[in-house]
Amino acid sequence: QQQVKQSPQSLIVQKGGISIINCAYENTAFDYFPWYQQFPGKGPALLIAIRPDVSEKKEGRFTISFNKSAKQFSLHIMDSQPGDSATYFCAASSAYSGAGSYQLTFGKGTKLSVIP
Amino acid sequence: DTAVSQTPKYLVTQMGNDKSIKCEQNLGHDTMYWYKQDSKKFLKIMFSYNNKELIINETVPNRFSPKSPDKAHLNLHINSLELGDSAVYFCASSRAGDTQYFGPGTRLTVL
């Protein structure tokens, strides 16, 4: 059972355009929603994260929009650049509650290609 | 300074062998993790280890055994390697409930 569904699987965007990646989750106990960026041959690196007490968080060109009632969250990359080309993962975790605590459940990833 | 390091970066071995992957973090974190990333890039938690408490993922075969000599190290030992074990293995660390920092990964190829 996949608890975090991510779409699209791949995305091609023109330089300067907006990249949008969507995720939906099932477990209402999730309370931390990070996005990770992974370049080929590297480990995932935290890009931006949100907790459900806010509906939006912005850091530079990256924005997370969060809809608690719909159990959905999305990543928006404004003014997309070729250097943003990477695989993006949404994830979710819940506060400590015994076995399985603090473990991130990842979406399947979105390969973003920004073309000049 | 590297925050989370793993060795080796590449590991090629034959089926049936036993191998270990080492992980060290210098961030002072109290929780460490092992993740497996398959050929389709899907990342899945294998283990988490917090203050000497090991949380085992039920889907991980018991051929996989994490060993933590101290809070800064979490090694992964794999017995009787199988073709399906080929993947990239990532170590990560965090303060409990906080951002997880990933290592560079170990690409394991089982022939």
Give a structural overview.
The complex is a heterodimer of chains A (116) and B (111). By secondary structure, chain A is mostly beta strands. In chain A, 0% of the residues lie in helices and 55% in strands. Chain A has strands at 4-7, 10-14, 19-25, 30-38, 45-50, 56-59, 62-67, 72-77, 86-94, 105-106, 110-115. In chain A, strands 2, 4, 5, 9, 10 and 11 form a 6-stranded mixed sheet that branches. In chain A, a hairpin with a 6-residue loop joins strand 4 (30-38) and strand 5. Chain A is globular. The model of chain A has no long low-confidence stretch (mean pLDDT 91). Chain B is mostly beta strands. In chain B, a hairpin with a 5-residue loop joins strand 4 and strand 5. The radius of gyration of chain B is 13 Å and the shape is globular. The N and C termini of chain B lie far apart (34 Å). The mean pLDDT of chain B is 91.
Ordered list of secondary-structure elements with their pairings:
The complex is a heterodimer of chains A (116) and B (111).
Chain A: E1 4-7, E2 10-14, E3 19-25, E4 30-38, E5 45-50, E6 56-59, E7 62-67, E8 72-77, E9 86-94, E10 105-106, E11 110-115
Parallel strand pairs in A: 2-11
Antiparallel strand pairs in A: 1-3, 3-8, 4-5, 4-9, 6-7, 7-8, 9-10, 9-11
Chain B: E1 4-7, E2 10-13, E3 19-25, E4 31-37, E5 43-50, E6 53-56, E7 64-70, E8 73-78, E9 87-94, E10 101-102, E11 106-110
Parallel strand pairs in B: 2-11
Antiparallel strand pairs in B: 1-3, 3-8, 4-5, 4-9, 5-6, 7-8, 9-10, 9-11
Observed structural traits:
heterodimer; A: 116 residues; mainly beta; six-stranded mixed β-sheet; B: 111 residues; seven-stranded mixed β-sheet; four-stranded antiparallel β-sheet
